[in-house]
Amino acid sequence: MPAIKPTAVALTLALFAVVANSADHAGGVRRSPRLDLGRDTGYRVVDSALAVTTFDSAWRTIGVTLERRGITRLDWPEVRRELLPRAARAESDSALRAVIDDMLARIGESHFALLPAQAAPAADAPTSVSALGAAGLALRLLDGGVVVWRTDSGSAARRAGVLPGWTVERIDDLTVPSLGPADSVGPRRLAVLTSAMRALRGAPGATVHVVVRDPAGMRRTFDVTLDSMRGPFSKFGNLPPLPATFEMTRRTLADGRCAAVIHFEYWMPPIMPALDRAVDAARSCGGIVLDLRGNLGGVAGMMMGVAGHFLNEPRTLGIMRSHGEEMRFVANPRRATDSGVPVEPFAGDVAILVDGLSASTSEMFAAAMQAIGRARVFGERTAGQALPAVATRLPTGDVLMHVVADFVAPDGTRIEGRGVLPDEVVPLTRADVVAGRDAPLDSALHWFEQPRPRKP
């Protein structure tokens, strides 16, 4: 295999979510976490020849990268011999997807996924988000249940009366299970959470029936009419449109200095100008918090530019390896603003907030900044789903996301399956959410306020 080209970084994605099914909820078969960027809502007849061609395209594409990565635990030819007859009998795209999903589940790694064609239009197709609807609330796993963490101002959920701190028991026909100590970590937690999040999406104007329990234990029911998702959105390659939302707020520390809190949902190129401006505006502050909670990843190469805002010299942020070849992600120190004004990288404190939904590029970045000692990480262990992948379109129009390399942090740590352990483990609790407190953020701001020796 030829050396991994630096230009490949721009096309390499590290993006994660979980596909949950009924077996996950029932405590049965545990499947591999995989990408989930759209529902399989279509049904289209496919003939046997197209089904076989599509299956073989996916099988060959994955087989090449498994060989290059030295993955030998699978008898890949035997997987084809077993599943190809099922693919040939598939009479619809949905049935064929079930066969390919079975193949992907056997790999046992993140970042293998099949996106339905309707969820991932071609790159040159007009991008419309008018068919994307959401309830406008964020969920987290707290105290053994799926709890409303935040509701967007003016959102459908807020208008219906749903409040933070309420435990979600049912969404339409989805019963949301409780979780015990054995489910404190791992794929099942993510499967339960993201299946609930997915159930809160649909077409704008559709009604979602939600059953919750308030902090006093009273059961409440709401009919939430979904709003069109608010942009801006980013369209990248074969992926479906993703929110490119960005937010910066300021907090005042006890000593009167300011602290900037920056949050964005995905690592997608459209957020970079806003992030550049935010860091420039915060240069006089004592610290910057990068809130990566719930950030599922995106374009891995972006972390080099983001890290450059905080590093005075080029530093390795991680290494992508495949077939004995490697490519280093190296931070590019920021020496000028977009308008050409000379600046120095931000020299104040940097804190990173993470949780169990911080994945992929978010994990890579947090692990790198932690390993080189440039940031302190607060919150909870991350998802442990950090493998570089690319998205390839198949003959049916569906998009196959597949891993192309392994990734290790600057200290050699492999994040896949392990996650990033914060320097300060600060769990979010339901009591805090009900009271309007954000303990991980408060801990980061408190750290900014503590006197300590400054590096020369």
Radius of gyration: 22 Å
The name of the CATH architecture of the largest domain is: Alpha-Beta Complex
Spatial strand arrangement across the major sheet: 14-15-16-20-21-25
SS-based structural class? Answer: alpha+beta
- Kindly report how far apart the N and C termini lie: 44 Å
Keywords:
disordered N terminus; 2-enoyl-CoA Hydratase, Chain A, domain 1; 456 residues; 4-stranded antiparallel β-sheet; 3 domains; alpha+beta; 6-stranded mixed β-sheet; globular
Structure, briefly:
The protein is α+β, with helices and mostly antiparallel strands and 456 residues long.
Describe this entry's structure for a reader.
- The chain is of the alpha+beta class and 456 residues long.
- Helices cover 25% and strands 24% of the residues.
- Strand 14 and strand 15 form a beta hairpin.
- The two termini are 44 Å apart.
Blueprint (SSEs and pairs):
Layout: E1 13-15, H1 22-26, H2 48-69, H3 76-89, H4 93-105, E2 113-115, E3 133-134, E4 137-142, E5 145-151, H5 156-160, E6 167-171, E7 174-175, H6 187-199, E8 201-202, E9 207-213, E10 219-225, E11 227-228, E12 233-234, E13 242-243, E14 246-252, E15 258-264, H7 272-281, E16 287-291, E17 297-299, H8 302-307, E18 316-322, E19 325-330, E20 349-354, H9 361-371, E21 376-379, E22 389-393, E23 399-403, E24 406-408, E25 424-425, H10 430-435, H11 439-449
Parallel strand pairs: 15-16, 16-20, 20-21, 21-25
Antiparallel strand pairs: 1-17, 2-23, 3-8, 3-11, 4-5, 6-7, 6-9, 9-10, 12-13, 14-15, 18-19, 18-24, 22-23
